[in-house]
UniProtKB/TrEMBL annotation, chain A:
<dbReference type="InterPro" id="IPR009430">
    <property type="entry name" value="GvpL/GvpF"/>
</dbReference>
<protein>
    <submittedName>
        <fullName>GvpL/GvpF family gas vesicle protein</fullName>
    </submittedName>
</protein>
<comment type="similarity">
    <text>Belongs to the gas vesicle GvpF/GvpL family.</text>
</comment>
<keyword id="KW-0304">Gas vesicle</keyword>
<dbReference type="Pfam" id="PF06386">
    <property type="entry name" value="GvpL_GvpF"/>
</dbReference>
From TrEMBL, chain B:
<comment type="function">
    <text>Gas vesicles are hollow, gas filled proteinaceous nanostructures found in some microorganisms. During planktonic growth they allow positioning of the organism at a favorable depth for light or nutrient acquisition. GvpA forms the protein shell.</text>
</comment>
<dbReference type="InterPro" id="IPR050530">
    <property type="entry name" value="GvpA"/>
</dbReference>
<comment type="similarity">
    <text>Belongs to the gas vesicle GvpA family.</text>
</comment>
<comment type="subunit">
    <text>The gas vesicle shell is 2 nm thick and consists of a single layer of this protein. It forms helical ribs nearly perpendicular to the long axis of the vesicle.</text>
</comment>
<feature type="compositionally biased region" description="Basic and acidic residues">
    <location>
        <begin position="107"/>
        <end position="127"/>
    </location>
</feature>
<protein>
    <recommendedName>
        <fullName>Gas vesicle protein A</fullName>
    </recommendedName>
</protein>
<dbReference type="InterPro" id="IPR047870">
    <property type="entry name" value="Gas_vesicle_GvpA"/>
</dbReference>
<dbReference type="InterPro" id="IPR000638">
    <property type="entry name" value="Gas-vesicle_GvpA-like"/>
</dbReference>
<feature type="region of interest" description="Disordered">
    <location>
        <begin position="92"/>
        <end position="127"/>
    </location>
</feature>
Amino acid sequence: MSAEAPEQDSGGERIGSYVYGILRSGQRIPEDLEAVDTGSESGESGLGLVSSGPLAAVISDVAVDRPLGTRQHLLAHERVLNAIAADAAVLPMRFGAVLTDDDAVRAELLDPHREYFSRALEDMAELVQFSLRGDYEQDVVLTRIVEENPSIRDLRERISGMDEDASYYDRVKLGEAVSQAMDAIRAADAQAVVDALGRYAVATVVKEVSGETGAVHVAFLIRRDHRTDFERAVDDLGDEWSGRVDLRLFGPTACFDFLPEYDVPDGDTQPGAAGDGG
Amino acid sequence: MTVSQRQGGGVQKAPQGGLAEVLDLILDKGLVIDAFVKVSLVGIELITIDARIVVASVDTYLRFAEATNRLDLHAKGGKDLGEFMGGLTENTMKGGAKGKTKGVLDAGKEKWDELRDERRSSRKQEQ
């Protein structure tokens, strides 16, 4: 296992401290949140707070000798952070952050970077993230594409008389043309989302859509006291796009997409203990 | 967690999405631990499902082509597929059935042994 990581003896099993995120010390976190599955008998199963000065890290015990990344692990990481973010500022760690023990969380994570974390928490105190995702109603968007593009219409008509093998290249061509037309519609729709909702947000990030019929994916940084206005505007857009784009709004979440960039430690030294767990 | 499809108005709201939505945030974003910690970092192997579909692929094109060919434009005054349909009953049959089930998760199971380099390079936010 990790060459430079000090051995920790917990009845023969090695237990590490899984870090979810960082918040101000003294802040309470919701009870009954499900932690990332410990994967061990000897580790404690609940969430804990490791505090040092003005900061605290949300942690749980995790066995270090098995891979992370099951559905339970992933969802637990996000749920814990979102539950905290609903009421308090929290800086989310990327999934999979594990230190050898709680002392290391204090001595190597919280204390050396106190200034950065404190400043970031202050800046994010009144902010939450929302993510708006939308999918096209496939037949509706395809119909529009066919109607607006004579070349696609012609290709489609030619293919429909041919058998599958003979039309292979034409079908690829048709699909590619449809895909490009959809990209153009996506770009326009992303802009429409930003135009309609950007004024309620402190910051906006247009993200890549996922899925073939993905329409829009935009992350918003929203002040807590502007939530209602923002959500109302989202509903209005949903009404406007009804039947064409199926919109879903996720949040409030921790501000994953909007973490401050100042003073980020540059991490240029290659950590010897990284990534050799397999 | 799961949000159901809903036609006609309204936006579904949930504190968080399903696995696909979650992955996008917690694997790509968030503070990267090894930017802060050097000595006591425990490198645990990450096994994840990559939920992101590569949009521009031949398979995608073929699916788009199939879906486009299936469209019934008749009602909107476009040319009716029927006039090309001579003996193609078989195609029509298989048309409607699969319909709209489009999984976002394309079950591309992938093992990410080593994300550190990628993490480091993408640590700064993309706009």
